[in-house]
Amino acid sequence: MRKLTLALTALALGATGMTAPAMAQNEQFLPSLVYRTGPYAPNGIPFANGVADYWTMLNERDGGINGVKIVAEECETGYATDKGVECYERLKGKGPTGAGYFSPLSTGITFALTEKVPGDKIPLLTMGYGRSESRNGAVFPWNFVAVGSYWTAADVAIQHIAKELGGADKLKGKKISLVYHDSPYGKEPIAALEQRAKVNGFTFKAIPVTHPGVEQKSQWLAIRQDRPDYVLLWGWGVMNSTSIKEAAAVGYPRDKVIGVWWSGAEPDVTPAGDQSTGYKALMLQHGAGKFKVHADLEKFVISKNKTATKDDFAQVLYNRGLLNSMLGTEAIRTAMKKFGNKPMTGEQVRWGFENLDLTAARIKELGFEGMVSPIKLSCADHQGADVARVQQWDGKAWKVISDYYKADRSILDPMVKDASAKYAAEKKITARDCSKES
Amino acid sequence: MILFGQFLEVLVSGLLAGVLYSLVALGFVLIFKASGVFNFAQGAMVLLAGLALVRSLDMMVANGLPFWAAIMLALLFAALVMAITAFMVERFVLGPLINQDGLTLFMSTIGVTFIIEGGAQMLFGSDVYPLRLFPSDAWFLFEDSFPGGILVSKIDVWGGLIAAVLVVGLALFFQKTKTGRALRAVADDHAAAQSVGISLNWIWFIVWLVAGLVALVAATVWGTKLGVQFSITFLALKALPVLIIGGFTSVPGAIVGGLIVGAGEKLAEAYLGPFIGGGIEYWFAYVLALVVLMARPQGLFGERIIERI
């Protein structure tokens, strides 16, 4: 039923020019790597809907970006790295200026494309995922781990635990376990958590779960026996709800389980029903709910039936898709200030990203006030923000339970510097001198 | 005492998890036993059965039908979907391939897998659909003897009971009914069975239908455990080592194979995993399967194939 709806919506979008294959010269081509089928579809669909709806809204409301119409094309990756690379190769050259940027929504695909984008000169927007050290734009000129990295998330999670315990000094002697998806994604926070364990004196244990995460009994029996004070969850798709169910089955308190922002959406908690109540997760700044931008979406997209979204409108991952598209299109808009109102090449879009300055006023103007705080990217800093909040599932909805935490850069910056220097040495990359970039 | 309690807990949970793998493996055994075809599509059939069940159940409950009536009708609807699937597979895939070799038939089931997976998601959706047919909390046994007790998941116990009923039912079906005996005859020799008037097309429809109903039973348990979703198809990969160990033609073998795989992988994860990085249970099941394969290629309970030259 969902697929039929998608097909019909695709036809509707085609009629409006969103997916039309024949492109005019004044159109900006934006590819969308999605997973609407397969094991991770419940999480991939709302994100893809948010991405598509924001672009449709810009076309319907503003005629595109500064008059340049967006032409989008989805490619199904099924969250598989090989298919992701195949999609990239197929779409990178489309449109009058090629793909503006790619957002693979997969750390595995990001790792693979990181090797390819320098040659093709196309930016990779990996908002809240991907390589944490790619914050260093001098070594990773084409990766933009905007808004937050996994190291940011790990640091904020520990800060929240410290707050719950009554201070950072109370972390000493505590036990914190990480249940993680055994993939590049799940392994990313380990370095930051090990570093924090050294600094704060807690015992850290990493427990892998094999893809896709449907069988976790042994891991949670180990947790039942080990009784850690907190469990951090770095799952995706079915792994998240299975973890929550297993936590409930072994009697581990759900309010001591804190998920990363990719483990904190509606599809992660609803399958476990009441067992999810009390479970906490980080927020990539935003959560669920309607903001000013949603009014325009309802007016220009939803009411005109130009969307695939149904139940997921304004849910966490839908909103993340909106935010992803907003960052991408604002980078294009920024680039247009320098290069003119015409379709941008990947190289020009990268300039746009590196000069993106989303002030509070601009965020308000875009209708995202309350969803995200100011973000400023630069040649040296491809992340641009260090803050996150914590939300808790009350059985029916996510409730924000904390103010913004700021990740401790005195711990993370040396890690970024070391890891990116190691990467540069391995790949024989000469780091850019950002002081000379304009 | 604490260590023994922990060992017992891992062992019991492993054995019960193994029985749940057996529920999926039984579908493979049925089709292989009756037709010599390794049905790669069994995991996809569990997904299709689960989606048909949960989506129709949700719709009927939303329309005000009492839960018990809705569940009965939903089970009937899902059984009907599996019957239609069996008919289509027999009519459009296996029927035209009668007398082709085993590899051709196996390849055809790979095609059937992708068609069922795509079709099921297209018809019923790609989300996670919660199914709550069995209790999902746990008992804590022998708390006096072991601190914290021995944890036993209720849903796993339900799965074990259902598997036991299935095995008895299937044994009676194969041994005591005319259709069951015809199935065994077809399994022994297609041509000989045809020569005594057994219709291959009818038998293959029946066997795919029974495998579809077994998939539906597996979907009720796994759907309650995980929610009905695409990942259920990965259970086929869990059933494979079960089949290698138990034998492709033995119903009791599927159960014993499941117990060995379940207990083996959980104990390995708990006691070997911490020394070699963890996350080993997926491949450890195949290590067990390879060991059995080398010692007894037909599996512990499989029939030895003797061909005269």
In brief:
Chain A has two domains: 2-149 and 289-386 and 418-436, Rossmann fold; 150-286 and 388-411, Rossmann fold, CATH 3.40.50. Chain A has 16 helices and 14 strands. Chain A has helices at residues 2-16, 41-62, 81-91, 107-114, 117-120, 150-165, 184-187, 190-200, 217-226, 238-249, 266-269, 292-302, 316-339, 346-354, 360-366, 409-427; strands spanning 27-34, 69-76, 124-125, 143-144, 175-181, 203-209, 230-234, 257-259, 280-283, 357-358, 375-376, 387-393, 398-400, 405-406.
Task: Lay out the secondary structure.
The complex is a heterodimer of chains A (438) and B (309).
Chain A: H1 2-16, E1 27-34, H2 41-62, E2 69-76, H3 81-91, H4 107-114, H5 117-120, E3 124-125, E4 143-144, H6 150-165, E5 175-181, H7 184-187, H8 190-200, E6 203-209, H9 217-226, E7 230-234, H10 238-249, E8 257-259, H11 266-269, E9 280-283, H12 292-302, H13 316-339, H14 346-354, E10 357-358, H15 360-366, E11 375-376, E12 387-393, E13 398-400, E14 405-406, H16 409-427
Parallel strand pairs in A: 1-2, 3-4, 5-6, 5-7, 7-8, 8-9
Antiparallel strand pairs in A: 9-12, 10-11, 12-13, 12-14
Chain B: H1 2-35, H2 42-62, H3 67-94, H4 102-124, E1 138-141, E2 150-153, H5 154-176, H6 178-188, H7 190-195, H8 200-226, H9 235-246, H10 251-271, H11 273-276, H12 281-295
Antiparallel strand pairs in B: 1-2
Helix pairs in contact in B: 1-5, 1-6, 1-8, 1-9, 1-10, 2-3, 2-4, 2-8, 3-8, 5-6, 5-8, 6-8, 9-10, 9-12, 10-12
How would you sum up this structure, described in words?
The complex is a heterodimer of chains A (438) and B (309). Chain A is α/β, with parallel strands linked by helices and 438 residues long. Chain A folds into two domains: 2-149 and 289-386 and 418-436, Response regulator (Rossmann fold), CATH 3.40.50.2300; 150-286 and 388-411, Response regulator (Rossmann fold, 3-Layer(aba) Sandwich). Chain A is built from 16 helices and 14 strands. In chain A, the strands form four sheets. In chain A, strands 5, 6, 7, 8, 9, 12, 13 and 14 form an eight-stranded mixed β-sheet that branches. In chain A, strands 1-2 form a two-stranded parallel ribbon. In chain A, α13 crosses α14. The longest helix of chain A is centred in the last third of the chain and has 24 residues, at 316-339. Chain A is globular, with a radius of gyration of 21 Å. Residues 1-17 of chain A have low confidence and may be disordered. By secondary structure, chain B is an all-alpha fold. Chain B has one domain (2-235). In chain B, 73% of the residues lie in helices and 3% in strands. Chain B has twelve helices and two strands, in the order ααααββαααααααα. The longest helix of chain B has 34 residues, at 2-35. The model of chain B has no long low-confidence stretch (mean pLDDT 88). Chain A binds chain B through residues 1-4, 36-39, 41-42, 45, 182, 206-210, 212-215, 217-219, 221-222, 224-225, 237-238, 241-242, 245, 248-251, 267, 270-273, 275, and chain B through 6, 9-10, 13-14, 17, 117-118, 121-130, 132, 136-138, 140, 148, 151, 153, 225-227, 229-232, 234-235, 238, 265-266, 269-270, 273, 277-279, 281-282.
